[in-house]
Amino acid sequence: MTEMANTNMTTNTWRRTKIVVTMGPSLDDPGVLEKTIAAGANVFRANFSHGTAEDHQKRIEAVREIAKKLNRHVAVFADLQGPKIRIAAFKDGTIHLEVGAEFILDAKLDDHAGDQQRVGITYKKLIDDVRTGDTLLLDDGRLVFKVTAVKDSEIICTVIVGGKLSDHKGINRQGGGLTAEALTEKDKTDLKTAVALHVDYIAISFPRSAEDMTYAKQLIKEAGGKAGVIAKIERAEAVPVIDEIIEVSDAVMVARGDLGVEIGDTELPAVQKRIIHQARLLNKPVITATQMMETMIENTIPTRAEVFDVANAVLDATDAVMLSAETATGKHPALVVKAMSDICLGTEKQPETKISTHRMDAHFNRIDEAIAMSAVYIANHLDIKAIVSLTETGSTPLWMSRIRSGTPIFALTHHEETARRVCLYRGVYPFYFDMNAVSRDHINKEAVRILTDRDILHHGDLVLITKGDQGAGTTNLVKIYRVGQDENQS
Known about the structure:
Helix content is 32%, strand content 22%.
């Protein structure tokens, strides 16, 4: 089973950059969901900021059922809400604030008593986190307040940038510094739900340190789960310690919404590039997210600015690009996935996406990692049509995917969890293969047959195979195999 819908695609048309789509009402129609998977969705995001446990269960079950019908592997991750700091609600739903007006954030005000002068806040400790002179940004920075005083339960502000303000909009402090813990009680409950649904990854919102990610891993283990953890980089405090956070995480997401608000949009492009570079350097997959194709919530084509945004992330070698409202509530989920896929494929034609000096001077402490690195460098300098990695955990194809290459990497495994997890890795495509059911003398032949049967490889093609010398286990062998001419070699 492969993650690609069209099993007749030639090896030079495999899209290396993966596409993450967010589940929501727009994908609840089975026909729309099937078209979206067929259009190229690789990973599905369950946004736990919205919906019930039952909603998420139904959607995840539907995704897996249709993926199986289409003979596809897809990954699923649960995105925990985190300590989103918000205003409460207004009596009339919406107000309009003029520049220069005084407005109060009141920790003791009833949650539905907001008016033109004040509104409640969901995070009561905000009072302790802000000081006179601080800048607060509301509704993703659309409104800007300057704190003029903090008294008892009141944060007294002057409106610097005004406009419409409605219920439950987010609050950020420019420069970061809010002390809310990364995992709320709601998150801990949702984490257990996610584990019970056997998701492949759990995304942790607003981590400030490596300790936040380690704690999340501990909670997953205590709940009996095996999901990997994705660190969503959204806080200014996370940027200086990004290496430490990446090291203890299984993947990282450049969550450009809140991060851009906290550090400033002008700083964001360079930080995005740095996070992508560091994640790949530290052998972790990375997702680039937020507003990538936002106009396609309504429109049938993206803007050129959106095309450039997606293309630049691809050129930076992000593993995946993510769609949020575009697929959750947008009008054209399958169309936007197809458009994003086309942008990725077009960008991946550029020579720089296939050239790498990644870790050329590095010393390797693990044999399997050294095999993975050498395999891709061989493929990049020889006419190799495909790399086949016989894998238990997915580690070898992950290491391979850190190197820029135009050669597709096929992860052959008998573990369904591994097959789903590698769906996030750039340039890696999973197939089911039970190497324990094949004699050692025929493993290469049977592994290659999976690809020849699907018209991916042909007689005379060179394929590079990595595996353990005992079949399953640590990778310590690399072999160059010519299809149809090495049939008797193991």
